[in-house]
Amino acid sequence: MIYLYRFKLPTLAQEEDHAKRFWQDGNPHPNEYPYGIFPFKRLTNVDFSEITIFYGGNGSGKSTLLNLIAESLKLPRITPFNRSTYFDEYVSRMCSHEATGGVRKNTVPNGSAIYTSDDVFFDLLDRRVDNEEAFIRRQEREEEHRALHNYGGGAIEFRSMDDYDELVRQIDLRRKTMTQYVNQYGGRIRTPDSNGEYALNFFQDHFRDDRLYLLDEPENSLSPKFQIQLIQLIQDCARFYNCQFVISTHSPFVMSLKGALIYDLDSIPVETKPWYELENMKLYYQLFKENQHKFE
User: Fold this and answer.
1) How far does Cα 77 stand from its chain's mean position?
2) Which residue of 13, 57, 142, 205 is surrounded by the most CB atoms within 10 Å?
3) Environment class of 28 (CB within 10 Å of its CB; exposed 0-12, middle 13-18, buried 19+)
4) Starting from the edge strand earliest in sequence, which strands make up the sheet with 212-216, in order?
5) Is-above-0.90 flag for pTM?
6) Is the Cβ–Cβ distance between 51 and 279 less than 8 Å?
7) 3-class DSSP assignment, residue 139
């Protein structure tokens, strides 16, 4: 399913014309992000398939392009991203998109979103913080249970409903084993998955049917084994569950997604290429070719 059909970027002439019309003394920010990036790559129209990939090295603009699209579509995001003072101006005045599938004209389905490697990282940190807090609470509940059963509890003098609640708690504490009491009042510690397992589970938990998803380097924290599982998940969501994906990556596994339309942002002008013609893939091929005898 294709919800986002085309994204339009300005030419250098359009950027300069914008400066003349909106700034009397010329563009005061000709080098401000994201001005001046894509005109010099001669990239003005991006057409999409069910799976579209932006490939390029560090500084190629693949994440910038993904963020421009996300802001143009007003997609929700979990964590903020680096943006300049003029980023919103650039999106609103310089960029446009053609889309369908949303409740309003030229919009994508509700629930569509952008997910970045930062989202996975900070979600993992939140989980670790939650586990640490749960660990402290469980220790406190263990001490309460141990103290009551070792030393007993004094009579409670009723002055308010808080005293009644404390009586109920102590009765409950006496009836339960330490494990039962700690599990009920201390909270549970979630299983500490590896970073890769957690990252894969993050995408499995967040993907839903009939959505557009923008993914910024989703391979981060994933071993080759988990990257293969991720691309299978993406392929299944696109094929069976009416999802569309736009992905920035330099992972050879992600770039080899079947049927993906790949934009090479390292080339000038930007071109679409098959995965096996990309520079990264040629480097991997050369490495294994030179060491072929070690695998035989």
Assistant:
1) 8
2) 142
3) exposed
4) 113-116, 212-216, 244-249, 51-55, 261-264, 271-272
5) no
6) no
7) helix
